[in-house]
Design a protein that fits this description.
316 residues; mainly alpha; two-stranded antiparallel ribbon; 2 strands
């Protein structure tokens, strides 16, 4: 039991930090610009593809730096030549633009790299055991991912709360005319924010591409869970995104590890449920089988109890 709990918590923390890497850039963009970017998962996918391609040419470590920068440039171009012109038409136009952009990016990826998944395996330089837990090895690439996730949170928190440019960025959202009057380039600030958020998504893709299947439908696979984390944590809250990511990661990991059903619980309590009972099939569903819907059940619960999320300041 101790082994199951320890391994599940460790895997849950790893998965939770991966979710935070996915959502940190989206949270940054929404909190600073008020834009809910539906193409964020597509930028994550681009990071995975860029790192795989660059890794074949120049190695993993240079790819770890260059791939996020390329995603940042893509994000800057999206804001400068797309969102800036759509923004004046309201939030609905922004959502439609980013939603359509996700499909455009998917088609471009398919045209360049094909419809089949690429062999984006863990590079040999980080493919070794970091330590042992109850006889099971903990891979080094997961340790690297955890370190990058923590560094991302510290960087964003310090940059937004403890630096002058962070204060200018926050002020530009609510008082753009005053910030412009003080001599700051407000459109340039928005380009910078979107570029940084996109680069963070690309950085997550570099590491997440090893754990997930790198294929053109990758954005569809991770997109829904990204918005679940953002809504549960609270729209625009960086700390909320971290807490929600860890909560969902640990809950889902434990659900996968527990191979029991309500029927097993009833048997332990001495309650007999006949096969003719209309709910017998429902009671017989294993928790491990239902694990993928755990985040969405948590989302529904959060929307009922606290619509603004754990630490959000505006309703979802």
């Amino acid at each position: 039991m101790l082994e199951l709990a320890t391994v599940s918590i460790l895997n849950g923390v790893v998965y939770g930090l991966l979710l935070f890497m996915l959502t940190s850039g989206l949270t940054l963009i929404f909190s600073m610009m008020g834009v809910l970017n539906f193409a964020h998962a597509s930028l994550f996918m681009l990071g995975a593809y860029f790192s795989w391609q660059l890794g074949r040419w120049i190695g993993f470590w240079p790819a770890l730096v260059i791939a996020p920068l390329l995603c940042g440039l893509v994000g800057a171009a999206i804001e400068r030549y797309g969102l800036r012109h759509v923004h004046k038409r309201g939030h609905v136009a922004e959502i439609l633009f980013t939603f359509g952009l996700a499909y455009v990016i998917e088609e471009l990826v398919t045209m360049i790299w094909g419809r089949n998944a690429v062999a984006n395996s863990v590079p040999k330089v980080i493919d070794f055991s970091l330590f042992q837990v109850f006889g099971s090895s903990f891979p080094a690439y997961k340790g690297l991912m955890m370190a990058i996730s923590v560094a991302m949170f510290v960087f964003l928190y310090v940059a937004l709360k403890r630096t002058r440019i962070g204060l200018v960025i926050q002020a530009a959202l609510t008082h753009p005319h005053m910030v412009s009057a003080l001599g700051h380039d407000v459109p340039g600030v928005f380009v910078l924010v979107f570029a940084v958020g996109s680069a963070l998504a690309g950085l997550a893709g570099v590491i997440g591409g090893f754990m997930l299947l790198t294929q053109p439908t990758l954005a569809h696979a991770v997109g829904p869970i990204v918005f679940v984390v953002v809504v549960v944590g609270g729209l625009g809250s960086l700390a909320g995104a971290l807490i929600a990511s860890m909560l969902i990661g640990i809950l889902q990991t434990f659900a996968v590890a527990i191979d029991y059903s309500l029927l097993d619980l009833f048997r332990t309590l001495g309650i007999v449920v006949a096969r003719s009972s209309p709910l017998h099939d429902f009671y017989a569903v294993k928790l491990s089988t239902a694990a993928p819907i755990v985040p969405y059940l948590l989302l529904v619960l959060m929307l009922v109890v606290r619509p603004r999320g754990l630490m959000g300041r505006r309703d979802a």
